[in-house]
Task: structure prediction
Amino acid sequence: MHFVTGGAFNGKRARVKETYPDAVWLSAYRGDSFAKINPADFRNFTIIFEGLEAWVKELIAEKDPDDIRALFRDFFSRWQAWEKADNRRKVVVIGTDIHKGIVPVEGELRAWRDITGWVYQDLVKKCEQVDLIWYGICQTIKGE
Result:
């Protein structure tokens, strides 16, 4: 698995499109629901999940932090198994870094920020490669 993170509008999408031009994109920003996505339905070799932080935000009102983390851990495990079943497969996850700057006053926004950070940590443990992109510059912080 490959995780790409960095600030909003810092070049994550462009870098991933350049690196994986034939991938299937599933995006929180387009309204795709990660919960309804089943690995068995995909025959493509590269799947990209965009907007991990947005999917986390959708769940905050209805689930507690531990349940959200468990849901994403299961999601990552299923896709990691799909990826490992064929060495031509690749799962790429794009998540915007929402942790810099002023800590929000609103409790829900602070919770979103905290839970997103925990979910990112869980994902990074499973990833072979993690890239950080700021201002179009890519820095590999784990892996290749």
Q: What stands out?
A: Helices lie at 12-19, 52-59, 65-84, 107-126. Residues 14-136 form a domain with the Rossmann fold fold (CATH 3.40.50.300).
